[in-house]
Amino acid sequence: MDHTRNPDNQKPDKSGPGLSDAELLGVIEGDVLIEDRPRIRQALRAEPGAARWVLRLREDKVALSETSRVQAPAGLVDAALERLEREALLGITQVNDAEGPIPISSMSTVTISPLTRAMNRWLLSSGARKAWAAAAVLALVGAGSLWFSSAVSNFFDQISAPNINNPKRLVEADDSQSTPLVDDLVVDVPEETMTLAEREVDDASTVGVVEIARVLPVDSVVPDQIISLSQAVALARADRLLIRVRTAAPKRTTAAMEDMVHRTQSDTGNWQLAAAKSVVRQVARAWDGREVESSSGTWAMGPLLAPETSREPLTTGSMLFEVCQPRQIEVYELSTDATPAALRSIRARLSADAYEIVFEQLDEPLEPRQLQDPTQMFWWNQPRSRWNPRHAVPVILETLR
Amino acid sequence: MTHEQSPQAEDQPLDRQDDLALVKAIQNGDRDATSELLQRHQDRLYGVCLRMVNDREWAADLTQDAMVKIIQGIDSFDGRASPSTWMIRITMNVCLSWHRSQKLRRHISLGGGGGIGEGSGGKKRGGWEAGLQIGEPGPSSGVQDKERRRLVVVGLGQVSDDQRAILVLRDVRSMEYEQIADVLGIAVGTVKSRLFRARAALRSAVEALMKENGSTAEAEPGQTDGSTQSG
Predict the structure, then answer these.
(1) Nearest to B158 by CA among B205, B102, B104, B194
(2) In this predicted model, what pLDDT tens digit does every residue of A140-155 receive, in sequence order?
(3) Which residue ranges form the domains of chain B, and what is each CATH number?
């Protein structure tokens, strides 16, 4: 390629005789062979434009080389070492830049199988991102559906009357038992543990003194006939809960409950005690005289019973022998949202002035509900007061004689 | 910040011996050798990155990337190339990969116009002139020399990545044709032809810049160096 003067931009044109690119590069780079120097010098003198252009390129080279004098910023190596340590801890190893246009001839690269490479590319692709996003949305929808179905199921469980027709008397149990479904609440009393007297009570609802002659081990007094707090919650939500407050000091307990009635709101605000309506009184009346088993044992009631009843428990070794005949003193109506906290609260308050609180199951719901409009399943569309409706629970204050 | 440094060609024999010893020590698990090797080469690596991207922040980031890759790949170093050349190769690959990613990003971004180093990547970056470090002492501190350096650096940003790479390796790192060929993975003859075209392209860019700016940085040849010294 020949280079001659171009008067416009000082670039050499390619029309005339001159030097090759390699020779011009040799001039610029300063590596012209000694034997070639005279010829090249003469050629450049003959072509001042080409000589000027080569000189400019040479000056560019010098100027560029002068910009090489830089110093790396402080802390660069430390930062790199920290990053190396961090990535080593995390097990991250970067693949060296062997896939660029510049081959790394002297490096062996990390071997990645085609399958892994394809998978990695796919994972980094926009399609993969969309797939992940779709999966996340589906997961959210699925979780929401599960939650919704669970909520609807619970709702129907609450509004539907439980299929419980055997009103075994159940005594309050320890809170550790938690079987929320109503159908699971009632445990049939084994035949061998039921006395003739009990059957008489169940069958005929006999009112009067019933002598219960049972000899039971202390540990098995009521282990499988009791209603736990969570079960009581479910019963309350089905309007089938009744609370018996048993006391050996009727005057004191009555005064305490009257005091609770006059308070407008409980401590937690989720229950209120009031005088019973006629419906509640009617229900309670059927429970008057039903005998009671003591879950706490007679030793617990002894001190309280002693002043008014002078009733002594009969014990034989580890065996408990008890005869209980309740007598209603007063009936109240508890209005509650039927939450565990509410029942726990009312139980604690009642227990302060009574010796035993017994949860029992009503034969029929207190206020049978009609199957509500299906749209009411969507409780969030209902007024907030309906989100957690109140339930009425008869509270019977009774003493033993 | 630049400092006066004596011009140093790549891969002096003594340096190479030291580098090889350090690489071997690193391969044997010597952590101190890692730091020493990186300390020895950080200015060179940073210089390559700075001229390739002409932005100090990006250059620091890319140098760090290159250092990490160098150490992580040190076990694969087999001694066929000198450690210095091998490290420069990795660094150049990092820089070229960065350029490719930046081009892709600018292509994707509707508003991503602008040249290299112009605010891409979410960081505030200066243009090519920002990395020139004008005003810092150089071998020749005359106004014309500073302006010439500025024009050359700005012009460097206007040539292609391949041309920039070969100019940086040759002029900034003072590498021999064989070393450049090793770094870029091309034949020596190809290096020469590409280098010549790169110089011509740079000259065209500088002259275009001079026309735009009305610069008088370039005096007549006789005023600076009228001879065409050879050999």
Answers:
(1) B205
(2) 988 888 888 777 766 6
(3) 13-218 (1.10.1740.10)
